[in-house]
Design goal:
Mean pLDDT: 88
Helix content: 25-40%
CATH topology: Rossmann fold
Oligomer: single chain
Structural class: alpha/beta
Shape: globular
Distance between the termini: 6 Å
Order of helices and strands: HHEEHHEHEEEEHEE
Low-confidence stretches: 1-21
CATH architecture: 3-Layer(aba) Sandwich
Strand order of the largest sheet: 5-6-4-3-7-8-9
Strand content: 25-35%
Length: about 190
């Protein structure tokens, strides 16, 4: 929540009736469930499905993720929960959506980037023609943890000749220090947990 307050959430165009409670960030945080030891022992998974199931909260989250990012050409979302958030952010901003997929999920030529995450390694890919040179791209994901996924995705976008304007995430797990692994990248979090 501290990150949300520090960013001074601008809910322009938010739903007509914001979630009940003293402030929208508090209401959103109350809809995120901790699942211990998932997907690996020692990891506490942040389950956003209760938030997604609440239409008002979902709309508020999308508005917060999009706020202040007008002027981009595309929104890129990271598989899989990043898709759920990035696609409506793209619609809200009136721009196209680009899926960044796990290895082997996209047809056609791709750029690939491997990275480490808190419980293993993975590879993400994007179509080589997903972005035009000079495109300004907002990167959206559900959680910023160690920053590996976001750093790999930002590198893919740059390899396409596009510019990453910012990373906008629903949740930042600040204790994992992900921002430190994203030098030069503007990071905005709706919630700090």
């Amino acid at each position: 929540m501290a990150a949300a307050q520090a960013e001074g959430l601008a809910f322009r165009g938010a739903p007509a009736e914001p979630p009940a409670g003293p402030d929208p960030a508090t209401a959103l945080a109350g809809l995120i469930r901790d699942v211990p030891d998932y997907p690996e022992p020692g990891v506490v998974f942040k389950d956003i499905t209760p938030l997604l199931a609440d239409a008002t909260a979902f709309g508020t989250a999308v508005a917060a993720l999009a706020a202040g990012h007008e002027g981009v050409d595309k929104v890129a979302g990271i598989e899989a929960r990043g898709f759920i958030l990035a696609a409506p952010v793209a619609c809200r901003l009136g721009v196209g959506f680009v899926p960044v997929r796990k290895h082997g999920k996209l047809p056609g030529p791709t750029h690939a980037q491997s990275y480490e995450l808190e419980y293993g390694t993975a590879t993400v890919e994007v179509h080589v023609d997903a972005f035009a040179p000079g495109d300004r791209v907002l990167l959206v994901d559900d959680v910023l943890a160690t920053g590996g996924t976001a750093a790999a995705t930002a590198e893919l976008i740059r390899r396409c000749g596009a510019e990453v304007t910012a990373l906008s995430v629903l949740i930042e797990l600040g204790f994992l220090g992900g921002r430190a692994n994203l030098p030069g990248l503007t990071v905005r979090a709706v919630l700090g947990l």
